[in-house]
Model the fold of this input.
Amino acid sequence: MGIVVNLDVMMAKRKITAGELADRVGITPANLSILKNNKAKAVRFSTLAALCRALDCQPADLLEYEPDPE
Done:
């Protein structure tokens, strides 16, 4: 499986909508959706930092490693 993005979990914990988070981070709602749905192939450190700042969390709260099944 690889890297899993738990953005939706943190958004629920912080009670923030996708539109509001996109505005705070400075990305489009479409790009936030790509991240949220594990469709992104890469994420800039500046975007990750902005997400962490907006959600008051650490990168490990957003990203998780799941090994591929054998």
Notes: The helical segments are 7-14, 18-25, 29-36, 45-55, 59-62. The chain has a mean pLDDT of 94. The chain has one domain: 2-66.
